[in-house]
Specification:
The chain is mainly alpha-helical. It is built from 3 helices and no strands. It is elongated and about 50 Å long.
Length: about 80
């Protein structure tokens, strides 16, 4: 169980680094989704299933809005 928690913590940090190091919104959103899924998995392993579900739904909605907005700005030539 300790190794699993260590793996989730390391994956969460790597997801944050993936967001910070990628200038492209296409790859940045992959890091956001990875960080969100791993963070919710971490809460789920602690026994907080309802908090994990609500947090994932809120993050997923927010991430999709920001991703669509940034992709539309990147695709617009003007």
């Amino acid at each position: 169980m300790t190794y699993f928690m260590f793996f989730l913590g390391l994956s969460f940090i790597l997801g944050g680094l993936a967001v910070a190091s990628n200038p492209s919104p296409y790859y940045g959103v992959v890091g956001l989704v990875l960080g969100s899924v791993v963070g919710c998995g971490w809460l789920l392993s602690l026994g907080l299933s309802f908090v994990s579900l609500i947090l994932f739904m809120i993050y997923l909605g927010g991430m999709l809005v920001v991703f669509v907005y940034s992709v539309s700005l990147a695709a617009d030539p003007y």
